[in-house]
Hints:
Elements: E1 22-27, E2 30-40, E3 43-46, H1 47-54, H2 59-62, H3 68-73, H4 75-90, H5 95-98, E4 102-104, E5 108-111, E6 119-122, H6 126-136, E7 153-155, E8 161-163, E9 168-169, E10 172-175, E11 184-187, E12 191-192, E13 195-201, H7 216-219, E14 220-227, E15 230-231, H8 232-242, E16 252-254, E17 259-260, E18 268-270, E19 288-290, E20 293-298, E21 301-304, H9 315-323, E22 334-336, H10 351-354, E23 362-363, E24 369-370, E25 378-386, E26 392-403
Parallel strand pairs: 6-22, 8-16, 9-26
Antiparallel strand pairs: 1-2, 1-5, 2-3, 3-4, 6-7, 10-11, 12-15, 13-14, 13-22, 14-16, 14-17, 18-19, 20-21, 20-25, 23-24, 25-26
Amino acid sequence: MTEAGWxxxxxxxxxxxxxxxxxVFSTHSRPSWRRVGVAIGEQVLDVAALADRLAPGLVDLLxxxxxxxLLAAGPGRWRELRARxxxxxxxxxxxxxxxxxxxxxxxxxxHLPFEVADYVDFYSSAHxxxxxxxxxxxxxxxxxxxxxxxxxxxxxRAGTVVVSGTPxxxxxxxxxxxxxxxxxxxxxxxxDIEAEVGFVVGPGTEPGxxxxxxxxxxxxFGVCLVNDxxxxxxxxxEYVPLGPFQGKSFATSVSxxxxxxxxxxxxxxxxxxxxxPVLAHLVESRRSTFDITLAVQLNGHRVSEPPFAGLYWTPAxxxxxxxxxxxxxxxxxxxxSGTVSGAERNQRGSLLELAWNGREPIELPDGTTRSxxxxxxxxxxxxxxxxxxxxxxxxxxxxxxxxxA
Length: 405
C-alpha cells in the first residue's frame, strides 16, 4: 500500500501507511498517562482515543499502558485493527475524526511497549558463530558439531529488558584474565554490543503444545530491534559448562516501536540453504526470512551494517525450537535472533568481531579507537526494510549510553 492518503506523507518516510508500528507513549504534559500509539509520519496516532469515537469494540485492547491485551487478542483482531487504521488514514471522510488524535512525535515520550514475559536469545548467524569460533578456538573448526542441527539459544532475564534510551550501567562480575591464576571481581572491562532483531509473541500456548514453523504468523505479532549488551570478560569465565548468565543478564535494550508482521510482506526473501537437512520439526513449507538491514553507530559514527537476511536459522525455526520440548508460550514473550553479522568486516554486529577481540581496534573520527565500550560511549542500532512500491519500512532505533559501574 503506497497511497499517500490525506496525510500527504513524503514517499520515503519510514513510518508510512505500509508500516503503522505500535508503541506505548505518554505526553510531556501528562507524563504518567500511557496509551497505545501508532507511528505515522512525524506524528503519533492515539489509537485508543480514536477507537473510542470510531470503533468502541477495540477500545479495551488499546486504552492500556502496554500492548499485551492487543498481543493476546490474536491474528484476527490484529488484522481488524490494521484494516481500520488504513481506512481511517486514507479515507478523506475520516480526516475530521482522526486529526484530533494525531500528536506531534516531538511531544511524546516512548516507553517499553509490552510487558516482557520471557526472554530467549538465539545464536543464528553462521558468520557470527564462525567469527567467535575463530577468535576463541583458532585451532578447531569454527562451528561446534551441533550448530547446524539445532538453533542454539540461552534463556535471559525478562526483568532487565529496557526500552531504548535507558542508560546502561557497566556491570560487575567475576572475570579471569589470561595468565591470572585466580578470578577476581570488579567492573567489566570488555563491555560489548550485539545488534539483533527481536520477535514479540502474541497468544500463549498450553504446556506441551509444540508450535510448527508454519504457525509463525499465528503467534508472532511483530518485530523490534534488540541490543543484547554483553560483558565479554564475565561471559568468557562463566559460560563453561552452562552458557551465558551474568555476562548478559544485566540489561537488554529494545526499540520502542513494534513493526507488525504484515508490514514486512514486501521484505520476505528466501533464506539461505541448510546443510545437512534439518530434522522434521524444523522444516518449513516456505523457507523464508526478512530483508532487514541494520545500522550500528558508535558515538554517532556508523561502524557496521549487518544484513538480517543471511541468518542460517529463520525466525520461524527459532519459534519452533523454542517450543519443541513442549515449553509454553506466554503473551509478551520476546525472542531475539542473536547477533546479526554478514560476511564482510563492515557487516559484523558486535565489537568483539569488529575489533577482532581487541587485535584490530575500530578507528573513530575523533582520532580515538575502540575495542570495547568505554564509559560515556553511545550506541545506536537502527534498521530498515523494503516496503511495497519502493517504500521504506523503518524500525526506529535502539539506543543506550554507558554509565560507570
